[in-house]
Each structure stands twice: as C-alpha cells, then as structure tokens.
Amino acid sequence: MENNEVSPKVITKIKSKIYDRYNWSAIGVCMQVLIATVIATAMQIVTYIILVSRDRSLLEGGAMSIASATKDYNMVFTAAAYIVANTVTAVIVMKASKTGRIRDYITKPAIGIPDIILACIALLGVSCFDDLIMKGISFVFGSSTEALGELLGNGMFSDNIIIKIISIGYIALIGPITEEILLRGCALPVTSHISPRCGIFCSALLFGLMHGNLSQIFNAFILGLILAYVTLKSRSLIPAMLMHITNNSAAVISSFIENGMDSASADRFSIISNAVTAALGIAALIILIKRNGIIDEKKDTLKINLPVPQESIDLVVTPDNKMTFKTFFASWALWLVILYAAFASFIMIILGQALGG
C-alpha cells in the first residue's frame, strides 16, 4: 500500500500514536519528580513536627528553621522518595504506554562475564574522566558540586549510624537499581520503538535532566549513553545495574578516603586516581565496543510492543523523516523536564555559592 493511498487522517493518527509513545518517556520523569517531591516534602514536614514537639524554639525560624532542623535527614528523605518514585513510575509508564513488561528485561545477559567486567570498568573510567573535566572548568560546575557534596555528605558522614547506613545503601546499591528500572527498563524501550540509537540518546538525556543538578546532568548523560548501549547489547538490565552499582560504590569509597585527608592531599588523590581510572576505563570502552560492535538498528533492540503495527510505521517513517529525535523533542512533557532541570540546577548553584561563601 502506497503512502498516497492512505488518507491524511489515518497518517495523522499513526503519527499521533508514535508521538504519544515518545511523550510517555518524558511524562515518566515528570511523574517521578512529582512523586518524589511530594513524598520527601511530606517526610520533611512530619519530621519537623516531631522535632518541634521536642523543642518549641524551632517554631521561631519559619521555613529556614524547617530546612535547618531536618537537613541531617535529607538523604533518608531522598532515598525513600526516589525508591518509591522510580519503581512506581516505571510500572505506570510501561503499562500506560503499552510498551511491555520490565521483568522481561531482568534476564540472563546476552553478553558474557568478561564483557560485563569491561563495561563496569568503562563506566567507572568515563565517570572519572568527566570528573576531571568538571574540576578543570570548576567555574561552571563548582557551585553545583559544592551543593551536591553538602547533600550527600550530611547523610554519608552523619554521626547517626542509621542515617549513614541508609544513605550509603541508597547511593551505592538501591538507588542504582531503581534508576536502572526507570531509565533503562522503562525510558529506553519506550523511546526505542523506531530506532534503538534514538532510544540510547533519549534515555540518556532524560537520565541527565532528571538529576536537576548541572554537574550531574553532564555526567549522567554521558554515562547514560554507555548504560543504554550495554543494555541493548545484553538485552538485559542486569549488566547496567552492576555497572551503576560499581560506579556509585567507587564514588562512596573515594569520598570516605578523601574525607580522611587534608584538602591538598585529597585533591592530589582525586586527580591521580581519576586520571588512572579514566585511562583504564576509556581503554575498556574501546575494547568493549570493538568486541560487540556498534548498535544494529534491526538486531539490538529490547522486547517491546510497537505503538502501531510495523506496516503502519512504514507508512510514515521514511529516510527523510525518521520520526525519532524530531518527534521526541516535540514532546510537551520533555520541555517540562527541561524547565525542571534548569530551575533545579539554578537553585543548586545558588545553594552552592551560599555554602562556598
């Protein structure tokens, strides 16, 4: 059936369904941010009420008093909020968009253990390379990094052992798992229905934007490309989860090592360790890609349900209009995510400057 045999109304309906599938990926991030914000705020208010019941003088400070009184619990609030938000959102989006089932991706990887080890080293190395770049242009990322360090530090280095355990457990283990469920288990297949390569870019972009911090947006986007590549090549979420856990665990260990040093020694350790790891990681990435090849648009795809039958997709997807990046960037939900990321990054910069001052 030729394109000119189909009515414009039918073509518009097909395009609308394809657009809706892309849109659901960004709607997912909007939902995640909203759910997490509501949960974290509710927990903060309840905690403040409990603290006020013990010390009435906290009532005198208003909103700033709330933030100050509950800051030691921020990582606990964040952990609880995002564990729920990531998993609930992923399930809702996959069902609402009719893309598939996340549990279908938690299977034995199609790549072997040597490749998974290479992938873990590659991700860690690229992350360290990103860190070196951000240190080199600290006038851009410095304030954001300062604010992020304050947030994480309040939890990881807390004198309260329970807060410390929850914070480390979330950053190093639970957080990576739930983020992979949302991004590589949901956003990647949702945006891969036309082109797996487009899915890699779109899911990585959403991964970066959802962090709402200038330094993390840059870092998470780059890492998201690698995580999505490995997920498609392995046709499983397990390697990406292991990669993410390795990366975050190494960051936690490094933070504790540097925390026990003076400022000059910590800087030297950070630069040397990052440089060595970056070199090893980039070499591992080159080997990994050489062993597994670039993404094949036909073979390297996850098990997904198409938004419309393949014959309908063929009617509107042509060499000059692939309905991939252009359609994704037309998503109203994506622009809400971009606005959120810009606003949250601005707040983090201001917070970082205040802390630095």
Summarize the structure.
The protein has 357 residues and is an all-alpha fold. The protein has helices at 8-54, 62-70, 74-96, 113-136, 138-156, 161-190, 196-209, 214-234, 238-259, 263-292, 310-316, 325-328, 332-356.
Task: Report the average pLDDT across residues.
Answer: 89
End-to-end Cα distance: 67 Å
- Low-confidence stretches are none
Radius of gyration: 22 Å
Largest sheet: none
Helicity, as a percent range: over 70%
Number of helices: 13
H and E string: HHHHHHHHHHHHH
Structural class: mainly alpha
User: Which strand-content bin applies to the residues?
Assistant: under 5%
Query: What shape does the CA trace take?
Result: globular
Number of domains: 1
- For the secondary structure, the number of strands is 0
List keywords for this structure.
13 helices, 357 residues, mainly alpha
Describe the protein in words.
By secondary structure, the protein is an all-alpha fold. The protein has one domain. Helix content is 77%, strand content 0%. The protein contains 13 helices and no strands. Helix 1 runs antiparallel to helix 6 and helix 1 packs parallel to helix 13. The mean pLDDT is 89.
